[in-house]
Amino acid sequence: MMKSTEKTSRKKYHVKKGDQVVIISGNWKAAEGKITAVISKNDRVVVEVDRGKLSPQKQQKLESRVRTVRKSRQNPQGGLIERPVSVHVSNVKLLKKADKNEKPAEKAEKKEKTEKAEA
Length: 119
Prior knowledge:
By secondary structure, the chain is an alpha+beta fold. The protein contains two helices and seven strands, in the order βββαββββα. The longest helix is centred in the last third of the chain and has 14 residues, at about 105-119.
């Protein structure tokens, strides 16, 4: 039993969401991209791969990374949906850390609109 004063341990990784990384092993070796999510349950990161820096073979492989979806309200036609690349944390190397002061594009645009409205 855990006491209320004890904290659960949280996994720490050398990378976090928003970091620029290069994949150092596996099917996507030498591919660069930005981390869009960290899945601590499986020790994996979801990487948005820069297509311009891939070889033609890897670009084709990236396009073939799809998932079949049944018909639903969200997808009335069903069909295929592209899946992001998921890689184990140990297979990525940090290139550039995410800026703490860097705001997501949506927040920056919203701020600009409010400033223009005030002026």
